[in-house]
Each structure stands twice: as C-alpha cells, then as structure tokens.
Amino acid sequence: YDVATFGNHEFDWGQVNLTNRTTEATYPYVTANIVQNDTGNCATAGWTPPAFAAAPYEILTVGTAPNTVNVAFIGVTTTETPTITVSTATAGLCFKDPAESILHYYDAMDAASDVIVVLSHLGYADGGYGYGIPVYGDQTLATRLNTAGKPVNLIIGGHSHTDLTSATTVGNTKVVQSHYNGRK
Description:
6-stranded mixed beta sheet; two-stranded antiparallel ribbon; 24% strand
C-alpha cells in the first residue's frame, strides 16, 4: 500500500494498539475528519490530527518522469464510529463531518496536486448500518463537494461492502467501492 485511512474496525482494540500498528506500517495513514477533542466539545474542536495519523492528506507523485502526476490522498471515516465501537476506543477524539473536513483542506491540496482522491470509509449509500445515526455515504459526499464547487476526481470507498460492476459517476467524480477498508 502507498497510503491508507481508517475504518471503524481499526478502533476495535483501542488507540494504543492502533498507534502501534500505524507506527509499524510502511505507508502513511491519513484522516481529515478524525481530530483530537482539544476543546472538550466536538462542535468547537480544532483540526489537530490524532497521534496515530500521519496527516490529514498526503501528496504522492506517481508515474515515471517525464510523465508524473501529483496525487492528493485525503481520508475520511464514518461519523458513526464512536457509536458502533467500544466508547473507550474513540475517547478524546471527534469525528467531524466528512465533506466539511475535505473542504477545510481542499484549496491546499488542489494547489499542490493534479488529482484529488478521497479514501473513504463512509459506505456507498446514505444511512450507515441501521443505528439510526444520520450518516451519508460516498455518493452524497461527491454531491456535497460538487455543489460546493470543490469536486474530487475519485472516491475509493469502503464500509458498506457494496459490490459495483463499474464506477458510479456523480458529476465528474468517479465513486468505487473496495472491500479492503481504507488501505489503497
């Protein structure tokens, strides 16, 4: 793998184990919407990434010179994670709105890259896993980014294990699903 983001199951064994695993990885883990709860209130929390994440996004140069492309990879995780995992596993963290989190970093990524790819663990469609939490999926994420005038080129998603025979196009954004959590 070259870059990864977090799925809800990365929290199953707590943050200490998660930090140990991400430290052992030979690739960065990125997350834009998981932040430290530095204010005691997720509504006012800042943008400080948790210790187990490398950064909100990573720019990788792919291809062989002179045919290289700078690709920005940004990660987002379902906001239902604190509810569907053991509460101690997400203590001290906030899971911000995925679209708002991408928009927070969008201009910097856009200036530094040719292509923006979202590594998503939101699920393909809206609704989550039936816990009654109003969460949205990758198709709605693409729509929200397009409506904001900040489209991404590709969303590689997981969480819902949706089998697609081909990519879904939302505006100019391609949406695909993977069974491999957030590792790409």
